[in-house]
Amino acid sequence: MIYPIVAYGDPVLKAKGQDIPQNFPDLQKLIDDMYETMYNAHGVGLAAPQIGKSIRLFVIDSAPFEEDEEKKKLSVKKAFINPQIIKEEGDEWAFEEGCLSIPGVREDVFRPERVTIRYRDEQWQEHEQVFDGMVARIIQHEYDHIEGILFTDHLSGFKKRLLKGRLTKITKGDVDADYRMKFPGAKR
């Protein structure tokens, strides 16, 4: 099932997600649906708040960032359940980020190059792993979502003021996205 993507301005995007219990109903179906939704919208990551669910879950697939087939084999496709970032380290580097919940807006965001994260996988096994480069950035971006943080929150006050009009248009549904969206005030 493909979910509509929740648009900027919806309070679910600013709420901290709740931990998922091990007996969460239909968790595997939700994860599968999140991948389907992410691929339909041409994303590389999707957090549960972006489909209106205030829980600690996100999925990523870094393959679209890899140019050649050899590097695609090293890409990371994972679901992160109840993740906790343990450490962020290394030099901060800028990359122009976007977000499925904020279509048409892209800005440079500085993030550390490496992240250590503890999470559960789809079989409920606990892992602690280190990721770096683009995969670390995708994880940090999606992790922010389950903490109620958007990439625009990392921008300077000046940049935020410049974007205010475009963000207001998004909250009103005045966007050009090639995927279904749900706008603030619409029933879930």
TrEMBL record:
Enzyme Commission code: 3.5.1.88
Pfam families for the chain: Pep_deformylase
Catalytic activity: N-terminal N-formyl-L-methionyl-[peptide] + H2O = N-terminal L-methionyl-[peptide] + formate
GO MF term (any one): peptide deformylase activity
Cofactor(s), by name: Fe(2+)
Active site: E142
Keyword 4Fe-4S: no
Superkingdom of the source species: Bacteria
Keyword Lipoprotein: no
GO biological process: translation
UniProt keyword list: Hydrolase, Iron, Metal-binding, Protein biosynthesis
Note on cofactor: Binds 1 Fe(2+) ion.
InterPro entries hit by this protein: Peptide_deformylase (IPR023635), Peptide_deformylase_sf (IPR036821)
Residues annotated as binding Fe cation: C99, H141, H145
UniProt xrefs under NCBIfam families: pept_deformyl (TIGR00079), PRK00150.1-3 (NF001159)
Task of the protein: Removes the formyl group from the N-terminal Met of newly synthesized proteins. Requires at least a dipeptide for an efficient rate of reaction. N-terminal L-methionine is a prerequisite for activity but the enzyme has broad specificity at other positions.
Recorded family membership: Belongs to the polypeptide deformylase family.
PANTHER family listed in its UniProt record: PEPTIDE DEFORMYLASE (PTHR10458:SF22)
Name of this chain's protein: Peptide deformylase
